[in-house]
Amino acid sequence: MKIEHMKKTLSFWVCLLFFLLALTSCGFRNSQEGITVRLSGWQSNPNEKQLLEQVFNQFEIQHPNIKVKHETINDQYMDVIKTRLIGDAAPDVFYLDAFEAPLLMQYGVLEPLNSYINPEFNLNDFEPTLLKAFQLEDRIYGLPKDFSTLALFYNKKAFQSAGIDQAPKTWNELREASQKLTLDQNRDGRKEQYGFGIAPELSRQYFMMTAFGGRLIDRQENAAFFTSESLKGLQLIIEQYRKDQSSAQPSDVGASTGSEMFGQGKAAMVIEGTWAIPYLQETFPQLDFATTEVPTVNGEKGTMAYTVAYVMNKKTKHKEAAWKLIAYLTNQEGMKAWAKEGLALPARKSVLEELGYVNNSLYVPFVKGADYATIWQAGETLPTILTHFNNQFISALIGEQSLRQAMKKAQRSANKEIQAAR
């Protein structure tokens, strides 16, 4: 009996030992395999994903216990992210445009990054206006990865043919140059070349309104752009299109973007972002063009700035790992690794300088514009305002109604929708 009891006891302890060894082995394997951080974003260029994958590979070499799962969402990106946030299925880290940031910051779905940021990270290296776009009540919810301002592109050959020896510095000079650059009609009734190509969208015209002291929203975030100040800036665009007939929108000449109509020679000048530079160089290699700062309006320097940040999902289970990824992507090493394409400018001043953008004549106007640009952001009601503004502004542009009537109608309908949502 004693021997039998001893066998059972020994068998029990052997089984227990194997069980503990199995647990230890499993735990060891899990620690070796590490964790996976999911990152979601969009793709603006085929090269962007490839460059990011290279950056992720370098990150994983430096952090062997962290794997990055990269997801590209190009269709209805923010709708997908918002739906996943509601369903607790959002990625650990994701892109966030400054345009959408106020809503997500206000509703507490983002992790504040202040406690993760140490002095060595050097926040002062970021362009201040870009960093501010992702702050609320001194809390930092995102770190800008890149940005673009707007600058004036001009066709050097067209300028030479029109006898224009320098780029316009004021809006009056731009209008005068635009008239000289507008050529006679083709057989189909269209002009052979317009002096200026316009984008009749709020995201491109906001700075025209601020030049005269206009604004988009009031303190309660209601639409507030129907003022004499805002109308003065917008009227310049309307007059050039309808009265001077020296400007056109892309659809007028069978183009889909301002960059395309410029590259095709349908417009001698356009105001576009940095993304247009590699596009023009690759698609229209024979085009001889230059860039300069956007001409002053009402004596004021102005342009727009668009920026995107990496943000952390507040409900992520891997906060430390998510922060390590964000920190790597936005430090000098990570930012420099993928910002060479020139589609957008790196958000750190040191990287801008190291990659030579501050000395590249095509990019200098964009870099300078960061100091005085209007960030494309205006509270959580901006998406609603944008839709109503664009619909009515285009109506005024093509002469269906006056600018005053259009903006009054746009503001009233926007505020009606905003109030209904509250």
Automatic annotation (TrEMBL):
Q: Does the keyword Transmembrane apply?
A: no
Does the entry feature the keyword Signal, yes or no? yes
Task: Give a GO molecular function annotation for the protein.
Answer: maltose binding
Top-level taxon of the source organism: Bacteria
Pfam families the record matches: SBP_bac_1
Q: What UniProt keywords are attached to this protein's entry?
A: Signal, Transport
Single GO cellular component term: ATP-binding cassette (ABC) transporter complex, substrate-binding subunit-containing
Q: Which GO terms describe its biological process?
A: maltodextrin transmembrane transport; maltose transport
Q: What family does this belong to?
A: Belongs to the bacterial solute-binding protein 1 family.
Checking PANTHER family in the record gives: MALTOSE-BINDING PERIPLASMIC PROTEIN, MALTOSE_MALTODEXTRIN-BINDING PERIPLASMIC PROTEIN
Q: What is this protein called?
A: Carbohydrate ABC transporter substrate-binding protein, CUT1 family
